[in-house]
Specification:
flat; alpha+beta; 7 strands; 691 residues; 59% helix
């Protein structure tokens, strides 16, 4: 039977490519049939659908008639349990269960041995899967075939093997112990995922390229449908008898215009309308998918951020005299506490580092005790800062606390600035199982997020760079990966401190300052990512016309709204009162306080008059006259003028607002709310309400 090829590597869709749904195709010549792009697109999906060990279960291909889904599932289960058995046997190479150089994430342990176990499992799976598959595949061209009842024997033997594998796996996991069993579970998960997404795709893609470039002949482009059994099974799905099928195949060579009826029905205007509706529907489902990903993103991120805190537990430390409470005192019955060496007086917190007092000064000198500090006048004019730091550990709630008391002297201002910091750290068993699942999902979402943004860069190019939301999205991605790096650095430091604490039995001074620094960095990164990701919800409101009017108005007037006088008063209040009041400690907090005073909220006025009554009165009077009375009215005028310029331009942007109408229409159709549809059609356009 002669085959004629019509190659068209273009879309027949109103929303794709040039939007055409009818094309005139010519018969493909030999050069077109040998093009690399055509051969790759023709062979890659059939090979994935038939040769991939796991994807072939769910995909369909005509050649799968020789190798059914139940046979594929049987082979996959046998391979999976065989892989489990072989990997757990290799885990019993070492005689001891002491594991060094490991990384703990939740219930999983990751060691250097896993690389060897991973490659052994993969090679074992690749080398042995051909045997069982060759028995199950039914090749009609072969003269030697197994009888039909051999499949029943294969199913019985496979079930027996799976049961034996499970028994050996359970016995071996009990024998090797808990630690190695957890390591084995981690390596099996990695091996299984790498087999699905790495090993099998590379195998299929490599074999496809090899056959296309080296083993190709003139008949290799055709699928092997010469088998009568395959042809009959395939034809039964579409035709009722052989004569009708032959008649259709013969008539297919007659040059009949199949789209004559379509041409008369679909005119150019109707085609444009169909394209417009299709684009709106595609963009609507894209927005819905974006909302779902964003919600899942936020749930995982908030769960990870919450896992770094221990809100329910709190500790009262150093309530009375500091020096007397550094050591455990006598019990209520005047008995000396035994086995409490190194504990505080609350009998719960144990000192894991000696209490030290440090200072920052011009010349360095170390003093041994408190009395010598007083006798030698350690605190003198050269002193710039005094640090009092100590570390605590409460084994009841598994909580570390890094305590730091700082007194800083500023010669330029002639004052002392006290700072107190108690930072609880959750360093052991950081995440539970559900939190670990959130972390894994979050990492996959970050990778998917990167893939989406790269596609947007390729599609929009320079226009994507001009959008402010693109910088926000890439900031989220970069800070997320930086947070992953800080997490592993914190794990490495925790491992080092754990070894030191175990070696010294808690009597060696351990400094938690670096761990506290890493923990603060990680918390701040989580805060920034959570803030930016929460602001991405505002980006979804771009389909609301009123919100778009507000956004475009503020964007148009941002140059005028950044007033010189407001910035000047912010700098003035910061320079005058940053040492005395927390409301003016930083530029950001000062700007926030000044903005509150613009709204006539003068809660800080009482604090200002306690510092300098005359200076505070002059500053507040000038602020009220120049900012509250004059600048606020100017702000309102600027916003109104820019609003009048923007509202006429918004009327031109119809597509994105029609998505809301499309969603509401679909919602009404699904729930049968026809009366609400009539009310919705009668609503006026919100833009015309302002005109």
């Amino acid at each position: 039977m002669e085959k004629i090829y019509f190659i068209c590597q273009q879309w027949f869709a109103v929303e794709k490519d040039d939007g055409k749904i009818e094309r005139t195709l010519s018969v493909a010549n030999k050069l077109q049939k040998l093009e690399f792009s055509y051969l790759l697109s023709k062979n890659i999906y059939p090979n994935f659908a038939d040769n991939h060990l796991w994807f072939s279960i769910f995909s369909y291909h005509p050649l799968s008639l020789n190798f059914t889904r139940i046979q594929r599932c049987t082979c996959c289960f046998v391979f999976l349990f065989l892989n489990l058995l072989m990997s757990i046997i290799y885990y019993d190479i070492h005689e001891t269960n002491t594991i060094e150089n490991f990384l703990t994430i939740g219930p999983f342990y990751f060691t250097q041995e896993q690389a060897c176990y991973l490659y052994i499992s993969i090679l074992n799976l690749i080398n042995n899967h051909k045997i069982l598959i060759s028995i199950c595949i039914k090749n009609q061209k072969s003269k030697l075939l197994f009888p039909w009842w051999c499949l029943i024997i294969v199913y019985m033997i496979s079930s027996l093997f799976i049961g034996i594998f499970i028994i050996f796996i359970l016995n071996r996991s009990i024998y090797i112990g808990d630690i190695k069993t957890r390591i084995w579970l981690a390596s099996i998960l990695i091996s299984f995922m790498s087999s699905i997404f790495l090993t099998q795709p590379l195998k299929v893609f490599g074999l496809t390229l090899f056959c296309m470039c080296i083993c190709r002949n003139k008949h290799s482009n055709d699928f092997d449908f010469d088998d009568d059994h395959l042809i009959s099974l395939t034809c039964q799905k579409y035709v009722s008898n052989t004569n009708e099928h032959i008649q259709r195949r013969v008539s297919s060579f007659i040059p009949v215009n199949r789209f004559s009826l379509i041409r008369t029905k679909w005119k150019e205007m109707n085609l444009e309308e169909a394209r417009h509706k299709q684009l709106i529907e595609i963009q609507t489902w894209t927005i819905i998918r974006e909302i779902q990903i964003l919600v899942l993103f936020l749930v995982c991120l908030y769960s990870i951020t919450y896992a770094n805190h221990d809100i329910e537990n709190s500790h009262v430390m150093l309530k009375t005299k500091f020096v007397l409470r550094l050591r455990a005192q006598k019990w209520y019955n005047e008995r000396i506490p035994k086995d409490l060496s190194g504990y505080l007086n609350d009998k719960s917190n144990r000192m894991i580092r000696w209490t030290s007092i440090r200072q920052l000064r011009v010349k360095q000198k170390i003093i041994g005790n408190l009395s010598e500090l007083e006798n030698t006048s350690w605190f003198d004019r050269n002193t710039r800062a005094i640090f009092l730091t100590f570390n605590l550990y409460n084994p009841n709630v598994n909580l570390f606390i890094y305590c730091s008391l700082l007194m800083e002297y500023l010669p330029s201002m002639g004052c002392l600035i006290p700072r107190v910091s108690f930072q609880p750290l959750k360093l052991v068993q950081l995440y539970t199982n559900i939190e670990l699942i959130y972390i894994i999902i979050y990492l996959f979402l970050i990778r998917y997020y990167i893939y989406i943004k790269i596609r947007l860069i390729i599609e929009h190019r320079l226009s994507y760079i001009k959008q402010i939301w693109s910088y926000i999205n890439w900031t989220i991605i970069i800070f997320s990966w930086i947070g992953v790096g800080f997490h592993f650095m914190r794990q490495a430091e925790l491992k080092r401190l754990g070894k030191l604490f175990k070696f010294s039995h808690g009597y060696y001074p351990i400094n938690l300052q670096f761990v506290s620094y890493l923990n603060n960095l990680l918390i701040n990164l989580d805060f920034v990512v959570s803030l930016l990701l929460s602001n991405c919800i505002l980006h979804l409101l771009r389909f609301n016309r009123r919100f778009t009017l507000l956004w475009l108005t503020l964007q148009k007037a941002k140059g005028s709204l950044i007033g010189i006088m407001f910035t000047a008063f912010t700098s003035l209040f910061y320079l005058l009162f940053n040492v005395h009041l927390y409301e003016f400690s930083t530029l950001f907090i000062t700007a926030q306080t000044c903005f509150e005073m613009v709204t006539l909220n003068f809660n800080t006025a009482n604090n200002l008059k306690n510092i300098d009554l005359l200076l505070a009165a002059v500053c507040l009077l000038l602020f009220v006259i120049l900012i509250v009375c004059f600048l606020v009215n100017m702000f309102i005028s600027i916003i109104v003028d820019n609003f009048n310029l923007i509202r006429y331009n918004v009327k031109k942007e119809k597509d994105q607002y029609e998505m809301i109408k499309f969603i509401q229409k679909k919602f009404y159709q699904w729930f049968g709310l026809r009366k609400y549809q009539d009310e919705y059609r009668k609503k006026r356009d919100c833009i015309t309400e302002f005109s």
